[in-house]
Design brief:
By secondary structure, the protein is of the alpha+beta class. Helices cover 37% and strands 30% of the residues. It folds into 3 domains: 5-87, Elongation Factor Tu (Ef-tu), domain 3, CATH 2.40.30; 93-246, Threonyl-tRNA Synthetase, Chain A, domain 2; 276-385, Diaminopimelate Epimerase, Chain A, domain 1 (Roll), CATH 3.10.310. The chain contains 9 helices and 20 strands. A 6-stranded antiparallel beta barrel has the order 2-3-7-6-5-8. Helix 6 (256-288) packs parallel to helix 7 (304-318). The longest helix has 33 residues, at 256-288. The chain is elongated.
Length: 386
């Protein structure tokens, strides 16, 4: 089988084309089709394949083996027939923006910090880039700014196969040794890399590059990056969220951090006050408890830590089974304690009786119940205890 002519290499902006069907064989419930030429990009180099249609058949997958490109399609196509191919242009354009943006950012990180791109994949919702060295937030901010400056310069993006003697004189990035002809991509002077993917024709068509996140990964840094329309959508969504939060905090985007810090300070102060009040309540309830007798207390307003504090304090006074309950959500939260004993059987019975969940150690258990009626739970515990 002769190698398939790759229209996407000579003109990545081709959206429709005609070709001759050379092979069509069943592939499960679909069909494997090979053409004399194609504009469909096969999966490879970190870039997903194109999708679209050949005639009325949908193209769901495209792969290349030994220079021959195979299209997985939804219906059989007659061998020898001339068929029209139609690329899903929105998908292809997105991949071109992401891939070209990756070149610009990778080249910038390599130039500034010696970082090698050791892993790349155009995923959803972001592009994954694995860099070989640790990178700080400051370094990433600098690289992002310089990469976007390359985009604003709107420099040409060139893709070509250099002659062997010319290739030998060039310094370019490549993740692996390549036998035979090498296709190079010059991303506006920001990067020179061996690459088989599709790219926009000028850096300005990338639109923008935004690093969404960075985390340590295998001694280097894993980045989540968006380019082009994805970057626009990401920034617009982030701004919308910031504006909504700003409305709640009576603070404009750009001033949210001090507003949140003030909120955290106020919350910490409230937690301290609540803890002090719950300690005082624990002592008061303990003083009122009868030593040796079951205690079932309803303490609405107590949080999980408060239930624990009250339960432990009262049970230390009574030296008997103590249950503390508080309304919360769709039911009751509870804490059980029995100094020197095992409350896990009580906890299990309570959960089974009232659709609850929870557990703990022999002397202390905590959880929640679907029941909202304190009296029902109190009666159950009294009867269980007897």
């Amino acid at each position: 089988m002769p190698a398939t002519a790759k229209l996407y290499e000579t003109d990545p902006y081709v959206q429709t084309f005609t070709a001759t069907v050379l092979v069509c064989t069943p592939a499960g419930e679909q069909f494997a089709v090979q053409l004399d030429r194609t504009a469909f990009y096969p999966e490879g180099g970190g870039q997903p394949c194109d999708t679209g249609a050949l005639g009325t058949a949908l193209v769901t997958d495209v792969q290349e083996h030994g220079g021959v490109i195979t299209h997985t399609v939804s219906a059989a196509l007659p061998v020898g027939q001339t068929v029209e191919g139609r690329i899903d242009w929105a998908r292809r354009r997105d991949h071109m923006e992401q891939h070209t943006g990756e070149h610009i950012l990778s080249g910038t990180l390599h130039r500034l910090f010696g970082a090698e791109n050791v892993g790349f994949h155009i995923g959803s919702p972001a592009v994954r880039m694995d860099m070989s060295v640790p990178l700080t937030a400051g370094q990433l901010a600098e690289a992002e700014a310089q990469a976007n400056a390359v985009i604003r310069a709107d420099a040409p993006v060139r893709c070509w196969y250099p002659a062997p003697e010319d290739l030998a004189k060039l310094t370019y990035r490549s993740k692996k040794e390549i036998d035979g002809a090498v296709r190079l991509v010059d991303a506006g002077g920001a990067d020179l890399c061996a690459c088989c993917g599709t790219h926009v024709s000028t850096t300005g068509q990338v639109g923008a590059i935004k690093i969404l996140s960075a985390q340590s990964y295998k001694g280097g840094t894993r980045l989540a990056v968006v380019c082009g329309e994805r970057a626009h959508q990401s920034i617009a969504a982030a701004w919308q969220d910031a504006a909504a939060v700003g409305t709640l905090l009576s603070s404009a985007p750009g001033r949210l951090l001090p507003a949140v810090q003030n909120l955290q300070t106020a919350e910490a102060a409230l937690k301290q006050r609540l803890a002090a009040m719950q300690n005082a309540l624990s002592e008061a309830l303990a003083q009122a408890a009868v030593p040796g007798q079951l205690a079932v207390l309803h303490c609405d307003g107590a949080d999980g830590d408060g239930l624990r504090r009250i339960c432990l304090t009262v049970s230390a006074r009574t030296n008997a089974l103590t249950a503390v309950l508080a309304s919360g959500g769709q039911g009751l939260a509870y804490a059980l304690c029995l100094p020197g004993g095992d409350v896990r059987p009580v906890c299990k019975a309570l959960n089974e009786a009232f659709g609850g969940r929870g557990g703990g150690k022999p002397g202390f258990c905590q959880g929640s119940l679907a029941c909202t009626d304190f009296a029902d739970v109190q009666n159950f515990l009294v009867n269980y205890h007897e």
